[in-house]
Sequence to fold (507 residues):
Amino acid sequence: MNTAASLLAALEADPLASLRMQGSAIADLAFGSLSRTELNATSFNRHLALLPPETLELDLDDPAQRQFGDYELLEMIGEGGMGVVYRARQASLDREVAVKLLAAGPWASKDFVDRFQREAQNAARMQHPNIVAIYEVGSAEELHFFSMRLIRGGSLAGVLKRDGKLSAMRAAQLLRTIAEAVDYAHRLGVLHLDLKPANVLLDDNGNPHVADFGLARRIEQGLAADNNEVSGTPSYMAPEQAIAGAQKITPATDIWGLGAILYELVTAHPPFLGESPQATLKLVVEGSLRSPRRYVEELPRDLEAIILKCMARDVAVRYPTGRALADDLGRYIENRPVQARPLNGVQRVWRWARRQPTLAALGLLFTISMLAGIIGVTTQWKRAETNATRAETNAATSSERLWESRRDAALRLQTDGKGFEALPTLIANIEEQEKAGKASDASIERREIGMILSQGVTLIDRMILPDAHPLAAELSTDGSLMAIALSDQTVRWYDTQTLTERGRVDL
Fold:
């Protein structure tokens, strides 16, 4: 017979006997399967990291145990060192919530109750979309509790147990969101200190939510808190957290925890795991972290570098904030260089080319074209210079022919839609024509360059107006005529197909 049924039967049969039973029965109810020897005072003085889970086992088939104040407990969905979590329906608001009950019940020490209430207070002061929201804090039937938002998708620990390791990209996306939430808590002066896959819940859309602030510490008086006890989950604890009094606790301790979560997400193995909690703590303090690529050879080196930076034994080497970690994960997700693994110049160019293949291909083609053009121009220039030396009297003619040949080549490139490849030859013409005192000839090339650079048009044809300089031009609506205003104060219009003059007016 379960504990609650025993109590009811005793009350009906023998009220005096029920009084004798009441103390032990309620104790059994509050502490579940824990023995009396496990509930002595020294048990609560042990380090929390080494305590077994304390489960408050209720018989939900019993209406008396199922009803808890304003809540109807529906099923147990989680348990831990501080308490037990139930899915429940809140009668007054007709909604489903999660209710966490203090595991030690009415026999909990003041320190234990204070820890439980601090957890609720620390979580309640945070309003973040990826931190589980607290609705109510109180006590009922001598049991302390708080209610919170019900996250239905299970925990990351459950996902790992069911599906194994996650892809590198999915793990990075999840941890970026988690890191942003933890950074928000840090900015409010709260350290979580128990970050692990079991304390990250997933909603129906797969978004992560940080939960269980049972070991959280406040750092309002500075950037660090004293470490007077070993508390946390051994496999995910930072070295400074695993030895009481050895080193102050800082946000870097949570950065280690975030790295430990990412480590397990991509390898399906916790960073450290011994045969017992004490053995695990010894590995945390004295052991060497096994490279995650030893579990997963195809793990990207950038993500491995991020994990190792989070879990550096030297606190100063870790990311300074959760925001910095989230930003580096963002760089990894966007295939940009990460700060955890600086790249040299060649690697940066290669990474950029992989991220922007179209621009990289265009840049390469443009570079090749420029080099080819420069080589061609240089060759022709040297040839022209040699010819000028051999026959100085024919230098002017040779230059004119060279310029014309370049114009023709540029025209062909523009006709083929490759105007940018014509730039080197046109620029060379301008330099040589101005040097030779042919500034009027250079203006042709300048106009062509202007069209290429500012308009990106393709040159179809060109004509020369020998008796006046153009001032402005305009096309008719149908594009069949082009009107040109000239420096001799006339306006002439031409057929755009044949470039023949169709008429003029003297202004």
About this structure: The CA atoms of residues 123 and 213 lie 6 Å apart. Residues 357-390 form the longest helix (34 residues). Confidence is low (pLDDT under 50) at residues 1-55. The longest strand covers residues 71-79.
